[in-house]
Amino acid sequence: MPELPLRGTRILEVEGIGPGPFAAMMLGDLGADVIVVHRPRIEPPPGTKELPITDRGKRSITLDLKSSADCAIFMQLVSGADGLIEGFRPGVMERLGLGPKDCHESNTRLVYGRMTGWGQAGPLASRAGHDLNYISLAGALWATALPGERPSAPPTLLGDIGGGALYLVAGMLSGLLMAMRTGQGTVVDAAIYDGVSHLQNLLLSIEGAEGRGVPAQSNPLVGAHWSRTYRCADDRFLSVQCLEPKFYQIFLERLGLSDDRDFSDNQFNRSAWPRLSKRLEDIFLRGDLSHWDQLFAGSDTCVAPVLSPEEAYRHPHNQMRETWQMTSNGLQAAAAPRFLDVSVGSPPSICRRGEHTDEILTELNSDIGWGSSKPGQAT
């Protein structure tokens, strides 16, 4: 059976929160040997789990990077790594003597990944921020509000993960390919602000999405009656997004509205959207979510129920694909994307803080298996 594509690639991760650990987890899901450097402590930070899913499949070593002895061990780890991921504010790793220049002196082919909110340079580079702040200033939150409502977005998905972690992964993979070709590493400046801005290039192909003085709800993917969620009689929600006219027509047919000229003639009439949205609100309040789900089943209406992760796990589509899986550590999503002839498999176990310290130190003190790996080659 084919191996995962990153088998033999070693990634060194400096403990952080949010997008950095997620990116390292994703590289591990793709087969990389990820070693996370945890700082010494006993209790997890408030609001976090003792065993976060983002530490699955990784090996953990505990080091105090303020200690010169532990920094020396860290640099030994750097010498045998293909990539490094850190998520501190600009300048922190340099002050520790572990910045890109220091690491490249030890390993010229290292791909040094830096995950920040605002980037390594710019007037906001050193300021604190979180997901909602980055997507606000990048212009992405603006278009999320329905008429009369405040802008909102799913926590972390758009900024930390979409604009942050996934762009860091793309940068790391690109850097690893370059290192294979040239033998020279690079520094990846992955800023959530940059990534979220870049994500909007597709959206900007839609007229009105650039926001030149028009309300956010004039964006058809937010304000149109055919692109929003609706409350049902049981206080559950249904998502509707039948953008293309052929799908919109099927949607109307299923609702018995295909002969209603107000609907059929005004799909892209912005002035009609509030009125038609209100009409659909009244219609969907007449039945439970299960009623509407059954009505639209098997059709190209582009309609789906709004489910929780646990409900998604029980859905027939997931039972076939096994995307959501119940593990000893609770509900998790399997690795993505998938590869031909590689089985989905169960998510790997989550490492405990410092669990592999002795194992990794033994490897470092051995003459075999450390510092000799090349991207794409097993050690």
User: Helical residue percent?
Assistant: 25-40%
Total count of strands = 11
Strand content: 5-15%
What is the mean predicted local confidence, pLDDT? 91
Low-confidence stretches: 372-379
Order of SSEs, N→C? Answer: EHEEHEHHEHHEHHEEHHHHEHHEEH
Through-space gap between termini: 19 Å
Which structural class is indicated by helix and strand composition? alpha/beta
In DSSP terms (H or I, runs of 4 or more residues), the helix count works out at 15
| Estimated radius of gyration | 24 Å
Shape descriptor reads elongated
The largest pleated sheet is described as:
6 strands, parallel
Q: Give the strand order, joined by hyphens, for the main sheet.
A: 3-2-1-4-5-6
How is this structure best described in words?
The chain starts with 9 loop residues before the first strand and ends in a 15-residue tail after the last helix. It has a six-stranded parallel beta sheet, with helices on both faces. A three-stranded antiparallel beta sheet has the order 7-8-9. It has 379 residues and is an alpha/beta fold. Helix 1 packs across helix 6, helix 5 packs across helix 7 and helix 6 packs across helix 7. The chain is built from 15 helices and eleven strands. It is elongated.
Give descriptors for this structure.
379 residues; alpha/beta; three-stranded antiparallel beta sheet
Give a brief rundown of this model:
The protein is of the alpha/beta class and 379 residues long. It is built from 15 helices and eleven strands. Helix 1 packs across helix 6, helix 5 crosses helix 7 and helix 6 packs across helix 7.
